[in-house]
Input
Amino acid sequence: MSTVAEERALVVVEDDPHIADLLDLYLREAGFRVLQASTGERGLELIDTHRPVMVVLDIGLPDIDGFEVCRRIRTRSSVPVLFLTARDGEIDRILGLELGADDYVTKPFSPREIVARVKAILRRGQAEPKADDTVIAIGDDYSVDLARREVTHRSTPVALATREFDLVAHLARNQGIALSRQQLLDAVWGADWMGDDRTVDVHVRQLRKKLGDELPLATVWGIGYRLG
Ligand code: CA
Output
């Protein structure tokens, strides 16, 4: 468990000192304790040591890039990650890779926008049922443990990114009901999410890949998806 002092700690991984200082200034003003890292390796160290509530992660870094940093974060933590991207092409990679990014902001951005996104992501996290010990079965082969935030396939845990888990959990709570992409976006990503339907499709693809063919997740043509 994190200590009280660390509860509002944020790690900002950004090699451009001007942007890093600007973020530092605004995020501190918003009440966060900001820990800066100018390389990916240093960022990972800070994440391990301080267990922050969120990571703001630039993609272009001098040592390992943000994609790799995120991949390594996900091997050890489900801390929310907000990506900073400089190029449009990177957005497809963020959505397409199984990185478990929680959101992204394209440069140039206003520091206020970052603060708003950070707060929105943390609010979403708080809305999750914390003391909920419900385990939802999906058929005979899968179960979703909402408290542990864990999906198992024949009792073996499957590593999912934050949003992948949220998506399968929402589908599991609504088994047998066809949900539109917009309904899924609103429920899982929140009404303030800027992405489009493609986001849902990409995550569904990842779920099918990770959870396997036995997952009874059907595409409902013209609507969206249905579990069970
Ligand atoms: Ca950079």
Q: What stands out?
A: The two ends are 36 Å apart (CA to CA). Residues 1-6, 128-132 have pLDDT under 50 and may be disordered.
